[in-house]
Amino acid sequence: MRNLEATLGVQLFDRSAHQTRLTWAGQVFLGECRRVLATVEQAVSAAKAAAQVYQGYLRIAICDSLAQPHIATLLARSREEEPELEIRVFELPFAQQLKGLHNDLLDIGFALSDAVSEGLVAEPVWTDPLSVIVPVRHPLLAHAEVPLDEALKFPLVLCHPDAGSGCHHQIQAVLQGASKPLKLVDQVTSLGVMLTLVGAGYGLGFAIASQVQTLNRPDITVRPLAGTPPMLSTYLLRRSADPSEPMKRFLQRAREEFLPKGDEPAS
Q1: SS (H, E, C) 213-242
Q2: Do 73 and 142 share a structural domain?
Q3: Residue 104 gets which letter from DSSP?
Q4: Closest CA to 55 of 100, 76, 90, 86
């Protein structure tokens, strides 16, 4: 105690009587210490509550080849309804999304694959019709809606099995029932490369129309497939643990915005 008194430069204890008592300065010091300890306890409690209940930002990753207008709609609604929530958006391939989610570097991912590993969940949030991407001045442009069998008569530029968006498996499921062998000229890992090869006349491609149309490329044309078009599902990826409150609200907006009524999964 004498070391503390020496440090503070004040006398905290009266040792002149048979019992050691606090001086007036000591009583003031004791009251301030109790106030500081109470403040620290409140700060610790608040920090624990923030860690358990509220997270002030969301880290969201999207893959190449996704329908960006849907994501833009969802982000705009989040900004309108919860402007204090900071949302950070990254573009990452599917495999890197899975690693980021596992390592708690991401909160949410959007991809065209639900092939997630243990500890993660993937729920479908919207679907988009698959369209055929055709070079300008191509004979298939005589069709307002292109029959799939007609498209498969031409060389194709398709998603690589390791494509960053995970689109390969969904498109392969559409094409595997073809009556003729596919004329595959290349497999690419990004939408940009596919559109470049299609525009150069190497072959036809398949993609989500709303994504391609936002790029306004003059060397390609998007045509819907005839009949009932195949639908590609976009999945929201997250950890299987209980989501934070901001994530719960974001998930609810996604379900309200895109899922048919009655199809909302449990949180």
Answers
A1: HCCCCCCEEEEEECCCCCEEEEEEEEECCC
A2: no
A3: T
A4: 86
Which tens digits make up the pLDDT trace of 155-168? 999 988 776 667 78
Report how far residue 261's alpha carbon sits from residue 267's, in angstroms, rounded to the nearest whole number. Answer: 15
Write the DSSP assignment of 151-215 as a string of letters: HTTS-EEEE-TT-TT-HHHHHHHHHTT-SS---EEEEESSHHHHHHHHHTTS-BEEEEHHHHHTT
Which amino acid is located at 12 in the chain? L
Total count of domains within the chain = 3
3-state secondary structure of 59: strand
Name the band, by pLDDT with cuts 50, 70 and 90, for residue 54.
very low
Domain of 159? 128-231
Q: Which helix (H) or strand (E) covers residue 87, if one does?
A: strand 86-91
The whole-angstrom separation of Cα 29 and Cα 108 is 50
Measure the CA–CA gap between 94 and 98, rounded to whole angstroms: 6
Would residue 183 count as lying in a domain?
A: yes
